[in-house]
Amino acid sequence: MKARVSKCNNIILIGFMGTGKTTVGKLLAQRIGYRFVDTDQVIEQEVGLSIPEIFLKYGEQHFRQLEKQAIRRILTRSGMVLATGGGAVMDPANFSFLKEKGCVIALDASENTLWERLKAAKDRPMLFSDNPREKMKSLLEMRRPVYYKAHFVLPVDGKSPQEVVDDIIAIIKPEGGDDHTE
Ligand SMILES: Nc1ncnc2c1ncn2[C@@H]1O[C@H](COP(=O)(O)OP(=O)(O)O)[C@@H](O)[C@H]1O
Ligand SMILES: O=C(O)C1=C[C@@H](OP(=O)(O)O)[C@@H](O)[C@H](O)C1
Ligand SMILES: [Mg+2]
After folding, report:
1. pLDDT tens for each residue of 37-66
2. Which residues line ligand 1 (CB under 6 A)?
């Protein structure tokens, strides 16, 4: 019988923009042989527009509806690493659905780390503002307590993406360490 990769049917990454959900999720999926899915990429393919274009053309509320539908459609299977968008779990129904469907891991980074990663980004419409740094700070203050309701919270400051993957594997592997990724 094949060794179980993990006690988690699905591994679901949540956290603020720039914490590395997309980057780490891809690497993690490769390492453990799970399928990688990113809610933003699914939405972009479905609509045929980039995330900033969707915000511009249809507005945030419409994006949130697409995100909610995408999450429910994606999580009908297991064996998946799912990277969510940073706003997905602000909807409590989304958050409880995700917690039912897999192990929810919040990547957690300091404001300074996030700003270093996001200050040059042109693809985060939630930060389009005269003062993106302030916008980031206030969103982060509002959202962080929600992220902390994940099954696990993983600090990522000062860690490479591969180190974050190692930490996640340590969190999710089955009791007794029966993990065929090593
Ligand atoms: N552990 C890390 N160390 C350094 N840079 C990182 C790390 N994780 C992600 N990044 C960089 O930060 C930016 C945002 O990463 P991304 O994976 O898109 O985050 P998210 O999906 O959470 O918004 C990208 O430029 C990515 O290369
Ligand atoms: O935090 C948010 O509200 C958003 C985060 C983005 O995803 P990342 O967290 O992967 O950047 C993307 O879903 C959209 O721009 C909205
Ligand atoms: Mg992402």
Report:
1. 999 999 999 999 999 999 999 999 999 999
2. 15, 17-23, 83, 117, 156, 159-161, 164
Residues spanned by the domain of 68: 10-173
The verdict on residue 5 lying in a domain is: no
Can you give the pLDDT at residue 3? 53
* For ion ligand 3, residues whose CB falls within 5 Å: 21-22
CATH number of domain containing 70: 3.40.50.300
Distance 23 CA to ligand 1 centre (A): 6
Give CA separation, 24 vs 100, 107, 135, in Å. 22, 10, 25
What are the Cα distances from residue 165, in Å, to 64, 86, 87, 101?
A: 28, 19, 22, 20
- Rounded mean pLDDT, 92-98: 98
pTM of the model: 0.95
Which residue reads 């049917």 in tokens?
A: 9
Establish whether residue 85 lines the binding site of ligand 2, counting it when its CB lies within 6 angstroms of any ligand atom: yes
ipTM: 0.99
Confirm whether residue 40 is marked as ligand binding.
yes
The verdict on residue 182 lying in a domain is no
Whether 1 maps to a domain, the answer reads no
Total number of domains constituting the chain: 1
In a domain? residue 135? yes
Which residue puts its alpha carbon closest to atom 12 of ligand 2? 85
Quote the CA–CA distance of 153 and 182 in Å, as a whole number: 23
